[in-house]
């Protein structure tokens, strides 16, 4: 993890300037973050069980609240704190 | 100006520069520390991993991956794809201002989303190499401190924090939102959902690698179409540099200007 990240950060400096500047690499850099983040959201929600009580309701509620708060204020920190608090409270309520 | 007042001025400037980073890093790292200590991993791994990895979203992910004894190859692939954007940060990093090798190596290591956007915004200013290094050191310090405090917090209140792991989902949601509201990211979002569906249908433990692998295939398969369209458009606009249509966006626009995504 640490070394892969360092490798990526070092790529442009290791005489790979050309590689980092290639159109296909630029294209990847532009298109990848959005899709990867979507995958990570789904991955992090992977543990929920829709068929048994509480039917993933705490996650569903917390996801909705996080997105609404974020659409409203666009403050990442606020959205994360409120979203997580919502999840913890609803876990408690449905638990 | 003698050396020590220069040092003090640089430290003061760097401290002021990094206030927004501190606001973002301290709480987020604290959530990371809480989450890590909550999974039963020894609490001191929180500050140690922050010292050694210094990669936010990936560090959050690492907790679950390590707890599940994920194979190294899968961790490698996930890190490669999650942190791919870092390849571009170096293109506009003011490396020429750093004279000594340790400062240069550390500069590369500690080039996170936040330090990148901070430094890229100051690229044309006459900023000293020492101030650059201090900015990165302070930012790294906030990250370590936050995860340390969070891990200690988990020790102090072990029962009341069930559900803290949602901070990971919330972080990813916020980042997804910021990408998804841009129209040009729509294809990527659709491909991400498709790839997840495929990985979900296949099942098994390797959701992350399968989803990311499928996503990469979709994205690469789409490249000839995108580049042909782009070169046609730029051919209509100007006759010069037909291959430039795909990459007109400067690398900086790939950096998410949020305080949340790091690393």
From TrEMBL, chain B:
Topology with respect to the bilayer: Multi-pass membrane protein
Sequence segments annotated as region (Disordered): 232-263
Keywords on record: Cell membrane, Membrane, Transmembrane, Transmembrane helix, Transport
Subcellular location: Cell membrane
Pfam families, A to Z: AzlC
Family: Belongs to the AzlC family.
Protein name: AzlC family ABC transporter permease
Native source organism of the sequence: Luedemannella flava
